[in-house]
Amino acid sequence: MKTGLKRILGGLRNRLGLEQIACDGRISLALARAAATAAARDLDPEVPRTWEFFGFSQHGEDGIVDYLCSKLLAPNLYFFEIGSADGIENCTAWLALGRGYGGVMVEGSSQLSEQCSKMLQGRVFNVLAINMMVNTENIGNLMKTCPYPDPDVFVIDIDSVDYYVLERVFELRYRPKLIVVEYNSAFGPDQAVTVPYQANFHRWQCHPSGLYYGVSIAAWKKLLGQQGYHFVTVESTGCNAFFIDPTAFPQGFSTRIKGVPYLENVGDANGATRPYRDSQGNFVVAKREWANQFEMIRSLPLVQV
Asked: All domains of the chain, ordered by start, with CATH?
């Protein structure tokens, strides 16, 4: 009996050891990638594209966030991310593991949130991992875990009712200095729309293409503009947009920035962008055009904001 228990415990230790090694490897790779891509930049203070590098982020978000944080007048070195995945691949892992920031990582998937907690354990002591599907009903209690009304960085990427959640954050009188939002490029550059509110919205359950979710770039600009934020840019893959509170930066800082107003999302694999076989059996990759993607979801309800 004791021998069997020892074998079980030994196997568990081995498995946990392998998980730890794999996690260490991913972090080391991300740090090396950040170092390499950051060193390759030719920084221009007026051109956000030149700020980009990526280590932990999927695209160039690490570089844009890092550059903007370096310009803050009174940083508190705290972030809040909703939709943080496993804690390694997101918009704030660089701040936690590369810059020593404290913060909160919120993830709706229990499996990914558990992975995030394990990643943080023994490595980072000032970041809290929370497993929660966020909506307007629970965001108030969730924000109580943020000790600052103005964290340096606030990220929301939940592929659902992001607009309503961030709107509620403002109602609760939080005012982050830098806000990073994912936008749905399939809605195009001009119409200010979002999906109707559903507390338990699931992108892939609402439409098989995966295109029906979130917020258009114009809607984000409208909401954040009403709150006094200045639009900075979208990053070069057309996935995330960046906004800043101009009072948190040197006077005139945002007016000199030559950001990109909108780009197609070149990395999203969805029903309109996956390769398919034509009538002759050849693989075809459709051109990424938002109008073609929007056509697939045109009949679904949208809310004008």
From this structure: 2-304 (3.40.50.150)
C-alpha 83/C-alpha 122 separation (Å) is 22
CB-count exposure of residue 229 (10 Å: 0-12, 13-18, 19+): buried
- Both structure tokens of 200: 């338990």
Measured distance CA(5)–CA(15) in Å, rounded: 15
Helix (H) or strand (E) holding 221: helix 217-226
Q: Which residues in the chain show pLDDT less than 70?
A: 1-16, 269-274, 286-287
Q: Which positions ≥6 away from 288 have C-beta within 8 Å?
A: 264, 265, 266, 272, 273
Question: What is the pLDDT, as a whole number, of residue 283?
Answer: 78
How far apart, in Å, are the Cα atoms of 115 and each of 109, 156, 270?
10, 19, 26
Give the model's pLDDT for residue 269: 65
Segment 200-221, tens digit of pLDDT: 999 999 998 899 999 999 999 9
